[in-house]
């Protein structure tokens, strides 16, 4: 392995765009967040080392046998997939990047392209959640030498239709970092640029920043790389694993994906799998699946002897044979996620995607169409398996194999074999029996996926299949600020209790989205009076175990404890002595 002469960042990104740098199929996707890209450019400006790179020099004859992928220029978190390069064997001087993909992609996105990352508190299927962002440098920002902070103010900012940052003020001047690529002469061109903007002429700092940026991109030899010339793919694979062991852990599913790409000669496995991940992620209110889930489903549905993500298992002929079952597998996975969505689950409430795999196996091999009884039975098992802590957190592969065997040994005519499945789970210490201590813990569940499942159990009359329901705070969070609680007459010593309990189960209910939006920051007694007639109000309070809803904030804890007691009583009845009829 030889160390190569360092090149500039501009030369490196040019190599990306003329396809001299490509990615092998074993590379994972780009996963960096905006702050990591901003910090990388700050490190470059401060003269900090950004590490060496590792390339594999691929001869044309070798390149014919493998799939290679292009670098991303315009990143979209919803579709973070690299495009396959059509003719890698025709690329002169091809180098496959074994270590450094994240850094090179970050440089490419920052200089040549853009990125779309989800904004917080917005749904994944909301188009406004993913604004286009480009990298800018604020030429008026004062510098700091604090190692914990950015010395240079790089920001990935949302842009308008003309590519200008949407956020501007008189105290900022956002320079598009990619524009530095077109600057040939750092002195004359940058002096002219500064003199064209009155606010930049007040100090020398803007010109010094631009001059430094130009030198970093155009002049300094920053991209230092080792190059592996050996054409043996086994050696290259081992080098790749070693090189990536110190960073983000190499997922064995990435290896499986690369093997599928190599072995599936009739379809593009990588393209198909990523397309399915996108498809099932968009079902209902949106889910958060990755290709690990799809690949694990392939192993289970295809009846592979081993479903572990180990290289020796990925090389078996069974993996290549999966392509002939792909259409059915793809359809089953989609139908399973559709079923989960009809139960009201989404990415926010599905605690573990692995819980769907036994359901998928049953649909795939035993019952392609479900009746009402099967749907109810599956939902009841799924809800409880997600509520019970520890079921899907460890020993998952052995558990899934045991459940698969239980389904195989049960007649399809018997319906979803809950009893056989739970017996197999119990034999591995994964029983679905709930003890009182666990019920107490569930009664104190916080806002999130487990609370959503609990609300399913407690209030199964809610039609989550046809209406989009939200987890609503009975007493709104907006009323739980220390200032508002103090104004409402709550004793200062009790305020921490109020704030602790506001996000717990006894203050949560399933509420139709439109009603939740209309509720706002009203006290629940006021909102109920505005929303319902007296009989409707009484019925709503009875169905949701609200009891006598107080009209004053100071009685919140009394309401909370009374409702918690009613919820705990119902959980004992449903989870200890009940069954599917609870839903």
Main sheet: strands, sense, barrel:
6 strands, mixed
Number of helices: 25
Percent of residues in helices comes to 40-55%
Mean pLDDT equals 86
If you compute it from the alpha carbons, what radius of gyration comes out, rounded to the nearest whole angstrom?
29 Å
Detailed description of the structure:
The protein is an alpha/beta fold. The protein contains 25 helices and 13 strands. The strands form four sheets. The chain has a six-stranded mixed beta sheet with strand order 1-11-3-6-2-4. Strands 9-8-10 form a three-stranded antiparallel beta sheet, covered by helices on one side. Strands 5-7 form a two-stranded parallel ribbon. α5 runs antiparallel to α6, α8 packs across α10 and α10 packs across α14.
Write the layout of secondary structure elements.
Layout: E1 2-3, H1 9-17, E2 21-24, H2 34-45, E3 53-57, H3 60-63, E4 68-69, E5 74-76, E6 95-99, H4 101-112, E7 114-116, E8 133-138, E9 154-158, E10 174-176, H5 186-195, H6 205-218, E11 225-228, H7 233-244, H8 252-263, H9 269-281, H10 291-301, H11 311-314, H12 317-321, H13 326-342, H14 356-365, H15 372-387, H16 396-408, H17 418-426, H18 436-443, H19 449-458, E12 469-473, H20 482-487, H21 495-501, E13 508-512, H22 513-519, H23 524-531, H24 534-543, H25 556-576
Parallel strand pairs: 2-6, 3-11, 5-7
Antiparallel strand pairs: 1-11, 2-4, 3-6, 8-9, 8-10, 12-13
Helix pairs in contact: 1-4, 2-4, 5-6, 8-10, 10-14, 13-14, 14-16, 15-19, 16-17, 18-25
């Amino acid at each position: 392995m030889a160390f190569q002469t360092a090149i500039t960042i501009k030369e490196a990104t040019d190599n990306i765009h003329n396809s001299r740098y490509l990615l092998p199929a074993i590379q994972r996707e780009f996963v960096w967040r905006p702050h990591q890209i901003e910090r990388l450019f700050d490190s470059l400006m401060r003269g900090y080392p950004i590490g060496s790179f590792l390339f594999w020099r691929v001869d044309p004859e070798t390149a014919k046998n493998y799939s290679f992928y292009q670098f991303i220029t315009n990143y979209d978190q919803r579709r973070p997939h690299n495009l396959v390069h059509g003719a890698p064997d025709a690329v002169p001087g091809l180098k496959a990047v074994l270590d450094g993909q994240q850094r090179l992609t970050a440089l490419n996105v920052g200089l040549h392209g853009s990125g779309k990352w989800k904004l917080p508190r917005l749904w994944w299927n909301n188009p406004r959640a993913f604004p286009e962002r480009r990298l800018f440098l604020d030429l008026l920002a004062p510098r700091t030498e604090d190692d914990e902070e950015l010395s240079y103010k790089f920001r990935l900012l949302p842009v308008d239709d003309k590519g200008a940052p949407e956020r501007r003020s008189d105290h900022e001047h956002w320079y598009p970092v990619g524009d530095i690529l077109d600057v040939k002469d750092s002195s004359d061109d940058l002096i002219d640029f500064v003199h064209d903007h009155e606010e930049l002429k007040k100090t020398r700092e803007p010109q010094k920043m631009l001059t430094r940026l130009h030198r970093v991109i155009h002049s300094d030899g920053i991209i230092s790389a080792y190059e592996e010339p050996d054409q043996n793919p086994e050696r290259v694979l081992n080098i790749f694993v070693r090189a990536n062991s110190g960073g983000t852990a190499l997922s064995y599913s990435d290896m499986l994906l690369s093997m599928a790409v190599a072995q599936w000669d009739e379809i593009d496995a990588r393209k198909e799998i990523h397309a399915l991940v996108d498809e099932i992620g968009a079902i209902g209110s949106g889910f958060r699946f990755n290709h690990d889930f799809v690949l694990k489903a392939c192993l289970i549905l295809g009846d592979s002897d081993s479903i572990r993500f180990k290289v020796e298992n990925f090389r078996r002929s069974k993996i290549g044979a999966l392509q002939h079952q792909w259409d059915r597998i793809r359809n089953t996975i989609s139908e399973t996620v559709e079923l989960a969505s009809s139960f009201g689950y989404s990415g926010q409430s599905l605690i573990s995607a692995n819980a769907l795999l036994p359901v998928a196996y049953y649909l795939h091999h035993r019952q392609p169409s479900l009746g009402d009884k099967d749907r109810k039975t599956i939902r009841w098992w799924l809800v409880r398996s997600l509520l019970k802590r520890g079921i899907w957190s460890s020993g998952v592969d052995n558990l899934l194999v045991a459940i698969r065997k239980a389904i195989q040994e049960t007649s399809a005519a018997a319906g979803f074999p809950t009893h056989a499945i739970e017996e197999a789970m119990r034999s591995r210490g994964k029983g679905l029996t709930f003890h009182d201590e666990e019920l107490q813990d569930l009664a104190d569940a916080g806002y999130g996926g487990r609370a959503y499942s609990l609300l399913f159990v407690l209030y199964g009359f809610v039609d989550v299949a046809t209406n989009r329901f939200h987890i609503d705070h009975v007493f709104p969070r907006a009323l739980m600020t220390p200032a508002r609680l103090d104004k409402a007459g709550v004793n200062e010593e009790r305020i921490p209790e109020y704030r602790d309990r506001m996000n717990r189960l006894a203050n949560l209910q399933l509420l139709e989205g439109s009603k939740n939006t209309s509720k706002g920051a009203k006290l629940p007694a006021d909102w109920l009076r505005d929303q319902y007639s007296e009989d409707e109000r009484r019925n709503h309070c009875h169905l949701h175990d609200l009891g006598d809803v107080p009209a004053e904030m100071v009685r919140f804890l009394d309401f909370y404890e009374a409702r918690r007691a009613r919820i705990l009583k119902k959980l004992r009845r449903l989870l200890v002595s009940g069954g599917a009829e609870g839903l």
